[in-house]
Amino acid sequence: MALLFRLRPQTKQLLEYKSIIDANEEKTPEQIIQEKQIEAKVEDLQNKIEEVKIALEIKSLALSKIQLSAELKNDLEKINTGNSVLMDTMKEVLMLNKSVMKLQQECRNLEIRRKPT
């Protein structure tokens, strides 16, 4: 029983220390706001990185398509089959590819103008 009486004040003191430590570990409203702002900025940057990756992939695919069309056109000219319908079709495909790229660029420019900064 005497042991319990000695341990009681020590336990009470330890609980007081624990509550002081817990109070010091709590974050202030300013720290919470700052952390939320940082998290929002990180998320915004991750979204921008993803947009850039997608734009790069689209441009790479468009470039590959144009290169492939140009190579095919060159090969057809080398073969010189005399089939003007096929050549006209290939020229039209190249013209359409260029038009698509031009329209995609205009679309990106319009999206950039619409985005709030």
Automatic annotation (TrEMBL):
Enumerate the spans annotated as Centromere protein H C-terminal domain: 3-111
Q: Name one GO molecular function term.
A: kinetochore binding
Q: Tell me which stretches of the chain form a coiled coil.
A: 35-62
Tell me yes or no: is Nucleus among this UniProt entry's keywords. Answer: yes
Q: Does the keyword Coiled coil apply?
A: yes
Q: Mind listing the UniProt keywords for this protein, alphabetically? A: Centromere, Chromosome, Coiled coil, Kinetochore, Nucleus
Protein's cellular compartments: Chromosome, Centromere, Kinetochore; Nucleus
Q: Which domain of life is it from?
A: Eukaryota
In its UniProt record, which GO terms are filed under biological process? chromosome segregation; kinetochore assembly; mitotic spindle organization
The terms describing its cellular component in GO are: kinetochore; nucleus
What InterPro entries is this protein classified in? CENP-H, CENP-H_C
Q: Which Pfam families match?
A: CENP-H (PF05837)
Q: Which protein family is it in?
A: Belongs to the CENP-H/MCM16 family.
By what name is this protein known?
Answer: Centromere protein H
Q: Per the UniProt entry, what species is this protein from, by scientific name?
A: Heterocephalus glaber (Naked mole rat)
